[in-house]
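Chain A, query sequence.
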Amino acid sequence: MLEQIILGIIQGIFEWLPISSEGVIVLIAKNFFEEQTLETIIKQALFLHLGTFLAALIYFRKDVWSLLKTLFNYKSAEKNIQKIFKFLIISTLISSFLGFILFKVFSGFEEQLTLSTKTITLIIGLLLLITGGLQIKARTGQHKKAEELNNKDGLLLGFMQGLSVLPGLSRSGLTVSTLLLRKFNEEIALKLSFLMSLPIVLGGNIALNLSKLEFSLPMIFGLIFSFVFGLITIDLLLKIAKKINFGYFVLVFGILIIASLFV
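Chain A, predicted structure.
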C-alpha cells in the first residue's frame, strides 16, 4: 500500500510540471519497489492519472462545461470555444492512435531485449534532456489566442501528446512547449495542455486498463492520494510555471539521472 501512496503523491505533484510524472513513477518503481515489467508500471501510472484527471476536471470545470454544451449546440457557441472543441477532437484522435502504437512497440521492445533498470533509467534521462531543451527554446514572446487555433495545431499537438506515452517525455512539457513555439500566449498554452489531457487519460484507461487491471485497496489509495495532491498543488504550480522556466530544472534533473548510473 505504501508503494501506491508514494506513487500517487508523485503523480499528483509532477503532473502539473513539465517533468514526466510517468517517467518519475517508472524510475521510482524500478529502483525502489518490487520488480515489475515496464508495461505493468506504465499501466499503473496511467491509472494514477485518473486522480489528476479528476483534479483537472474540477479546476477547469467551467471550460469543460462550455465544451460539453458545444457538443449539442456547436453553431451558436462562441468562436474560441468552437476552435478549442475542434482542436481537442483532432489532437485526441491523433494522440490516441500514435500513443497506442508506441505503447505496444515499446512494451514489446522491453520484452524482446529484457531491458535492465539501468538502460531504462538512461533512456528516461535522455528523453528528459529533450523535453528540457524544448521547454527552454519555447520561452519566447507569445501573442496568439484560442480563436487562432487551426487544424495544423491539432495535428501537431496530437502528435506531441502521443509521444508522451514514452516514460521520460513529459506530456505537459511537450504540449506546452509546442504551443509556445506556435506563438500562443502562456495562459492559453497551459489551459489547452491540461484540457487535452482529459479525453486521452480517460480513453487510455478505458482502452488499456478497464478489462485487464485488477483493482485493489492499495491502488484505490494511490488514486485518492493522486487526486488530493493534484487538487492541492494544481493552482500553485500552474502559477509558478508561468514565472519560472522549468526547462532548466528538467535539464538538470535529466543530467542527474544519467550521472546516477555512474555512481
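Residues 91 and 154 are 5 Å apart (CA to CA). The radius of gyration is 18 Å.
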